[in-house]
Amino acid sequence: MYTSSDYPYGVLTLDTHHMGRTHVVASYVLLGDEPAIVDPGPASTLPRIEAALAQHDMRLADLKHVILTHIHLDHAGATGLILEQNPTVQVHVHAKGAAHLVDPSRLVNSAAQLWGDQLEILWGRTVPVPQKAITTLTGGERLNLGKRRLRAYDAPGHAKHHLVWYDEVSGAAFVGDNVGVRLPLLRFTRPATPPPDVDLEAWMSTLDMILALAPRWLMLTHFGAYNDVQYHVTDFRERLQRWATLVREGLTNGRSEEAQRDALDAHATAELAHLDEDERATVLQQSGAVELSWRGLVRYWQKQAKPA
Ligand SMILES: [Zn+2]
């Protein structure tokens, strides 16, 4: 068995190689007396996770905990399949997301609306998680994994069922999708704001919370670990606000949906101008569709416009 002392702080970064691409979806393993996986990724990439664990002399059966930042399929989709193979695993998830793990039909249906017949290829077979395996949290809790201690923080913004997990041993904050998308070696963040529950006000408070937490590392699902925390969060906040403002302006200036989407797309492309050609191509291939982010922001502004 691979031990914590073999690896800095006992934190492993696994690349799920989603759709055969590197640096798109990360999963993290916390080694120690009670091994845990943070965001095991989509169901479709579980074989890859098993292969990566095997390289560290581990199997799914060795895991004691599945720790979820949020329940989107690219983060939590494999959870049910892990339980099929290892029924003793405890799953730790935000209380607002737990029901969708037990009955994933709504999650899968809304994903089907976005992805159509690509759903199964992209995300695999998402199976239910037994209720008894689930521990729900709302933020403020501590979780002891043997000697390792994690703290959970309520972190709405990208999704209302989002938690940030802070590892007291490594100083790493597992931030899921709350500080956007960034690729290794690039000093460049990009928002990911899919429907249905983007909440900008809550998101700004979550970013304040992350800065106040002052983690040593930001652990992004898309993709990897970054230690220029202040820069990253500040850059991300500015980009998120710019994207949101652009989408709101589009909604009020009477242009067609297509023209509005194109405007955000043009802005997102202009943001890549300082990168070289290879870097630009990589960002475009690795980060989510701008259209999905546009739809999530539209939905947010439409909710804001409705009287309470
Ligand atoms: Zn997400």
Element-by-element helix/strand order: EEEHEHHEHHHEEEEEHEEHHHH
The geometry reads as globular
The CATH architecture category equals 4-Layer Sandwich
**Could you say what the CATH topology is called?**
Metallo-beta-lactamase, Chain A
* Number of structurally distinct domains: 1
The biggest sheet, with number of strands, parallel, antiparallel or mixed sense and barrel status, is: 6 strands, mixed
The side-by-side strand order for the widest beta sheet comes to 1-2-3-4-5-6
Helix share, percent: 25-40%
Ligand kinds: zinc ion
Which value, in Å, is the CA radius of gyration?
19 Å
Under the CATH scheme, which class? Alpha Beta
Termini Cα gap: 55 Å
Number of alpha- plus pi-helical segments: 11
How would you describe this structure to a colleague?
The protein is α/β, with parallel strands linked by helices and 308 residues long. It has a single domain, classed as Ribonuclease Z/Hydroxyacylglutathione hydrolase-like (Metallo-beta-lactamase, Chain A). Helix content is 39%, strand content 17%. The chain contains eleven helices and twelve strands. The protein has helices at 46-55, 73-76, 79-85, 98-102, 105-115, 119-123, 200-213, 229-252, 257-270, 277-286, 290-305, and strands spanning 11-15, 26-30, 36-38, 65-67, 90-94, 134-137, 142-145, 148-154, 163-167, 172-176, 217-220, 224-226. A six-stranded mixed sheet has the order 1-2-3-4-5-6, with helices on one face. It has a six-stranded mixed sheet with strand order 7-8-9-10-11-12, with no helix packed on it. Helix 7 packs antiparallel against helix 8. The radius of gyration is 19 Å and the shape is globular. Bound molecules: zinc ion. The site of zinc ion (ZN) has 5 residues, from loops.
